[in-house]
Amino acid sequence: MTSRPPRESLAQILGGRRGAIDASIPPAAFVLGWLIAGQSIAWGAGVAIGVAVLLGVYRVARGDKARAVVVSLAAVIAAALIALHTGRAEDFFLIQLLSNVASALLWAASIVVRWPLLGVVVGLVIGQKTRWRRDPALLGAYSRASWVWVFLQYTLRVVVYGSLWWSGQVVALGIARTVLSWPLVAVTVAVSGWVLYRALPPEHPGLRVLEENEDPSDSEPGGLPRT
What we know:
Blueprint: H1 10-14, H2 17-36, H3 41-61, H4 66-86, H5 94-112, H6 117-125, H7 136-166, H8 170-179, H9 182-199, H10 209-213
Helix pairs in contact: 2-3, 2-8, 3-4, 5-7, 7-8, 7-9
């Protein structure tokens, strides 16, 4: 009798620490430049953009996709332009605040319509695409685990960023932007992974079940398991 191989952790499947760390460096550079230059938004913006450019060049030289680097740089430039336009240093973080509002709403909506985004992401990463939806147990587990991302990551960020932005706490925003990047992502991945596997029946073979036992004649599930 052969033993079943251990299930992969969600962290092993998703990874992504480098991107989260990189995203927190330009905001920290903005705050540092803003403070050193006597709360000059122009200097803070210049330092943030300069650091983002250097980081982008480094990543491209290391073999990262130029498209991802350009998108990251564009986000930093847009944040800097907003702060320069409004004259409020805290507005450098406005895009980040709004993007987390949008993410929380999008992830919640995906669960409601039975297309939980955690399942979509994991399915793409492991080459399963959307075939995981044929398994009612997986669909239900992904739905439950996706709520962790809605509340623990995106909603928490909205509350923290929103309160600090409203009160004009620029330095605290820079610190929060760092703390709520990779550390929070790591916690979210760990907790959602635990919820995901706890929601699966003990005898369930795991996330890659359809790779071994896929039945092309399977139809979409009629509904979620009861919670």
